[in-house]
């Protein structure tokens, strides 16, 4: 069934003569993006777009590098979820070295790393970035609308957020040596065993972390249900959902089959082998964004777009594997009255359920004797192509590499979590523009409504950046002393040349 | 109470890892906020530096025209400007594209990508012009301090900030200097 959403505002039919309003940079998100609106004289919104303005060129510059470098390099695409890229790349490398199944120790330690990452990333997003909007209101004064304002007004909540993030980061540091861009997963396994001291160190604060995580779900649920009518409709729309699930249909973050459901909760496909993702997911290029627009091939590029991330995962899962999170999932699912929950703001609630799951899953792993094992590596028959898919904090993350006989990468394709939500974020922007801004005198607070909608998706815009305008444009780089370092001209045909 | 140190931060062609490392000072964040006031930063909603500030921290090198513009704004408004992390100091990982032409990179992503439909290079005027090469910050403006690391550790950032505020030479001691 077709997702119902406001597609009209994507492109104004007569852009000439319209007023341009721009929000740049989008703040309290990771990465670089901007929103543009085109409005007529009566302030009627005619076009609303989220643009991703950064481009890295990873797919090209990775070519010729030896494959074992990739898990280390690729995490530098994103400093908030480096572990997701590290692990997705490592899973693809596992395929290259024929390690279809890791040793139990290696798999469990990678999971521990991944859950630490989920915990820290979700805490960061909810407390440091999104909570000011939710606690103070979308049009609260700018000076207050940040983590510092939260520290002043709600110190207990802010401190919990800081400490939850710290715990997740410590899990990552203990395993990978550094909190950001450490090194742990290698093709076929992991590079270090866990000691009893490390395990005891992580165990020490775990009860507190579980308590705080439960409290965080209460806060998120309370905010959402506290003003249900508004929160359920703000930037809300029906859509398809994509995520990994375990073979039995339960929630899964590290490894599983791809499941897609439609807006009524009916399966589009299920338990698709990661290697076959390209049969089901393609991406469309649009001229106004460096981020592509993925869609489910069977439904086509107009109707096949979908959402990923916490909302998709909680909607798609038949159950959570841990008891506290399962209890919360049931309360959440009840809101959908038999179908998926479609509200954009429900992402925050779903995200906190996942954080609770991560805390429970960390506890279960720390109690599991397998994590002290010595058997860290495995390998099998060499292959020249590998696909690694993982559920990053922000959604399904695809890494796909082809190497040649000399072990050099010849082809890479990445679909990062945020890219999967590209259409959805644009639809959310259009929904909010149509309902809150249309015909209004624009204020800073009203414009923040657009960012609130985008923030719910926790976008990671710098990993989503994959061009050139038609306008002749010239840039000069001047050194500090005023000397010309470089001059760049963009010609009318879009090509750049140095002058 | 003494006046707070005004600080602005931004990420150019970086991954936000350096900003994450700053947040990794954990509880010390609460102490920091006693003595520091943030102007433009991705963690608040101040979109442009609103006043001259004491300290600017920049992660990431320069990869497009917009980056150049923001970097000039920072140099103009910040008394002390710091290149934080590998990317700001050398261009870092994004500068790996410098061994290819920009056209090759764009075509690989948008034209030759597997599963790519409507293949073409995005060209809307809203998208900032990319530079042919990714450059370190000091190629474009004068930089006062360089903090190495990818990212510099939370302890290194903390040391730098507290020494600077105390009026001391903030040069990092040997054990806080890491390049990875
Ligand atoms: S130096 Fe490292 S951590 Fe900092 S922005 Fe660059 S890649 Fe990210």
**Which geometry of chain A do the CA atoms define?**
globular
CATH architecture of the domain at 102-237 and 342-377 in chain A: Orthogonal Bundle
How would a textbook summarize the main sheet of chain A?
Answer: 4 strands, mixed
What structural class results from the helix and strand content of chain A?
Answer: alpha+beta
**What's the CATH topology name of the domain at 102-237 and 342-377 in chain A?**
Cytochrome-c3 Hydrogenase, chain B
Mean pLDDT value of chain A: 89
Question: Secondary-structure map with pairings?
Answer:
The complex is a heterodimer of chains A (499) and B (180).
Chain A: E1 19-23, E2 33-39, E3 45-52, H1 58-61, H2 70-74, H3 82-96, H4 104-136, H5 147-153, H6 155-176, E4 185-186, E5 189-190, H7 196-204, H8 206-226, H9 228-233, E6 240-245, E7 257-261, E8 267-272, H10 277-280, E9 281-284, E10 293-296, H11 300-303, E11 306-307, H12 310-316, H13 323-334, H14 346-366, E12 385-392, E13 395-403, E14 409-415, H15 417-420, H16 422-437, H17 444-456, E15 473-478, E16 484-490, E17 496-498
Parallel strand pairs in A: 6-11
Antiparallel strand pairs in A: 1-2, 2-3, 4-5, 6-7, 7-8, 9-10, 12-13, 13-14, 15-16, 16-17
Helix pairs in contact in A: 3-4, 4-6, 4-14, 5-6, 6-8, 8-14, 12-14, 13-14, 16-17
Chain B: E1 5-11, H1 17-23, H2 28-35, E2 36-38, E3 53-59, E4 62-64, H3 65-77, E5 78-84, H4 85-90, H5 102-110, E6 116-117, E7 130-135, E8 145-147, H6 154-165
Parallel strand pairs in B: 1-2, 1-3, 3-5, 5-8
Antiparallel strand pairs in B: 4-7
The structure holds iron/sulfur cluster (SF4).
């Amino acid at each position: 069934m077709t997702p119902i959403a406001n597609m009209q505002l994507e492109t104004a039919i007569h852009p000439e003569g319209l007023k341009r309003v721009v929000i740049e940079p989008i703040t309290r998100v990771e990465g670089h993006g901007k929103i543009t609106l085109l409005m007529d004289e009566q302030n009627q919104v005619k076009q609303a777009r989220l643009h991703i303005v950064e481009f890295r060129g990873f797919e090209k510059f990775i070519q010729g590098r030896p494959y074992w470098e990739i898990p280390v390099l690729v995490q530098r695409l994103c400093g908030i979820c480096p572990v997701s890229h590290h692990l997705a790349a490592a899973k693809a490398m596992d395929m290259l070295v024929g390690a279809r199944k890791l040793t139990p120790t290696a798999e469990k330690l990678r999971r521990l790393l991944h859950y630490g990452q989920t915990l820290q990333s979700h805490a960061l997003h909810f407390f440091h970035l999104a909570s000011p909007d939710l606690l103070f209101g979308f049009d609260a004064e700018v000076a207050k609308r940040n983590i510092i304002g939260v520290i002043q007004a709600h110190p207990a909540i802010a401190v919990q957020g800081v400490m939850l993030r710290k715990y997740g980061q410590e899990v990552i540091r203990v395993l990978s040596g550094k909190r950001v861009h450490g090194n742990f997963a290698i093709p076929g396994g992991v590079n270090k065993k866990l000691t009893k001291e490390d395990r005891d160190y992580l165990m020490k604060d775990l009860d507190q972390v579980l308590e705080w995580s439960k409290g965080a779900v209460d806060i998120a649920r309370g905010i959402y249900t506290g003003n249900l009518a508004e929160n359920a409709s703000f930037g809300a729309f029906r859509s398809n959902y994509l995520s990994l699930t375990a073979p039995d249909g339960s929630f899964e973050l590290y490894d599983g089959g791809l499941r897609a459901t439609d807006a009524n909760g009916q399966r589009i496909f299920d338990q698709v082998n990661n290697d076959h993702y390209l049969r089901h997911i393609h991406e469309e290029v649009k001229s106004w964004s460096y981020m592509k627009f993925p869609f489910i091939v069977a439904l086509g590029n107009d109707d096949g777009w979908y959402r990923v991330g916490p909302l998709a995962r909680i909607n798609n899962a038949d159950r959570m594997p841990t008891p506290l999170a399962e209890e919360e999932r049931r309360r959440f699912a009840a809101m959908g009255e038999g179908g998926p929950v479609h509200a954009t703001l429900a992402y925050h609630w779903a995200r906190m359920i996942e954080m609770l799951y991560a805390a429970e899953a960390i506890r279960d792993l720390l109690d599991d004797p397998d994590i002290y094992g010595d058997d860290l590596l495995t390998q099998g028959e060499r292959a020249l192509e590998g696909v690694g898919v993982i559920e990053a904090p922000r959604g399904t993350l695809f890494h796909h590499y082809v190497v040649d006989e000399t072990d050099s990468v010849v082809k890479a394709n990445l679909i990062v979590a945020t890219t999967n939500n590209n259409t959805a974020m644009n639809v959310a922007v259009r929904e909010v523009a149509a309902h809150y801004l249309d015909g209004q005198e624009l204020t800073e607070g009203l414009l923040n409504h657009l960012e609130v909608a985008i923030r719910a998706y926790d976008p990671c815009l710098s990993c989503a950046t994959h061009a050139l305008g038609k306008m002749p444009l010239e840039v000069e780089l001047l050194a500090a002393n005023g000397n010309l370092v470089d001059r760049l001209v963009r010609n009318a045909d879009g090509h750049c040349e140095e002058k | 109470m003494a006046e707070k140190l005004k600080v602005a931060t931004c990420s150019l062609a970086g991954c936000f890892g350096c900003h994450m490392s700053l947040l990794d000072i954990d509880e010390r964040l609460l102490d920091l906020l006693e003595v520091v006031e943030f102007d433009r930063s991705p963690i608040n909603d101040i979109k442009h530096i609103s006043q001259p500030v004491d300290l600017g921290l920049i992660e990431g090198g320069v990869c497009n025209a917009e980056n150049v513009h923001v970097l000039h704004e920072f140099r103009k408004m910040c008394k002390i400007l710091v290149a934080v992390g590998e990317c700001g100091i050398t261009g870092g990982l994004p500068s790996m594209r410098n061994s290819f032409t920009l056209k090759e990179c764009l075509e690989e992503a948008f034209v030759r990508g597997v599963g790519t439909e409507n293949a073409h290079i995005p060209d809307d005027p809203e998208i900032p012009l990319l530079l042919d090469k990714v450059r370190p910050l000091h190629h474009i403006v004068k930089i006062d301090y360089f903090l190495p690391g990818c990212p510099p550790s939370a302890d290194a950032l903390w040391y730098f900030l507290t020494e600077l505020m105390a009026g001391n030479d903030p040069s990092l001691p040997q054990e806080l200097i890491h390049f990875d």
